[in-house]
Design goal:
This protein is mostly beta strands. Helices cover about 5% and strands about 45% of the residues. The model has no long low-confidence stretch (mean pLDDT about 95).
Length: about 130
């Protein structure tokens, strides 16, 4: 492992692709050669509500809104988000995002990742879903 690394997140490949139309995800942990930090960029198209949610078994995460606005669903509770808000989420909390009219760009920061991963996928149940 090197003692430092520089990566432009927007130059990384979109790892989400066709699996979630309207969402882009670029993951920098491997490119940063980091043992302890995961840094990712997520871009949500305008007014997109994620139908999928996730939690973790071990990783705590923080999300920084760097552009746009929207909402985050945390264990069934909806919270408004605006640029430069930071949301810390405990591993077991189920979370999902919804973009506002100008879209939503979020930087996710995670801690050490177990070798076999620890993400737990699930469906997002938005309380105001029609």
């Amino acid at each position: 492992m090197s003692s430092f690394a520089t990566v432009n997140l927007l130059e990384l490949e979109d790892s989400v692709g066709d699996r979630a139309p309207g969402i882009e995800g670029r993951f920098g942990r491997k490119q940063l050669d980091s043992r302890d930090l995961g840094i990712s960029h997520f871009r949500y198209a305008a007014n997109l509500r994620s139908p999928m949610a996730h939690s973790h078994r071990e990783q705590e995460e923080a999300y920084v809104v760097v552009a746009g606005s929207g909402r985050v669903l945390l264990d069934g509770e909806v919270h408004d988000l605006r640029q430069w808000d930071v949301v810390r989420v405990a591993p077991e909390v189920v979370r999902a995002f919804e973009a506002g009219p100008e879209g939503l760009d979020v930087i996710a920061v995670g801690g050490p990742k177990p070798p076999d991963g620890d993400g737990v996928p699930g469906a997002a149940t938005w309380p105001d879903a029609a």
